[in-house]
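Hi P.,

Sorry for the delay on this. The queue was packed all week, but I finally got your sequence through. Input first:
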Amino acid sequence: MRVRDKSYTKKSPFPIIEVFKPKIIERKGDNMANANNSLSHSKWMCKYHIVFTPKYRRKAIFNQYKDSIGKILRQLCQYKGVEIIEGHLMPDHVHMLVSIPPKYSVANFMGYLKGKSALMIFDQHANLKYKFGNRHFWAEGYYVSTVGLNEATIKKYIQEQEKEICFPLMKIGKNWVAEFVDSEGNHVEVYTAITE
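Then the structure:
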């Protein structure tokens, strides 16, 4: 039987000196660690800018279709746990800034989103079957890019999709002239001949 007594324990003759103390520096502002989502054993931040179009790039997303398609896309994203950070429906394409969990590949998610949404769209709007036929609402393929620190720029780009750029036209001789200043501050004039 072993007896625990202070007289039997030995102390180290060397003093303990703390040589290295790491400093924890907290950054103010947007911290990437706070922006992470988590699954059971992982932290992740997977954001993508996705663009896809209706078949034949038809201008099919308008009026009552626009509202119901937006509702369907939000519902399907919610089912998969995908967060829509920003989204905009144009008459002939869809822009989405989404955060997709890493358990789904982008291709897997897009196949699900386009396939299920097409079925739901045709269920709600039976008259579209004659235009598109065979339950194919979306065109094949899509554009995707990863989003890093330029998230704010992409959000602004998606929000400003529908803003039209108008330039005043002047008639000079036999030409129409548009004058404007570009993003770099250069004065630009564009001429085109008048056709009658």
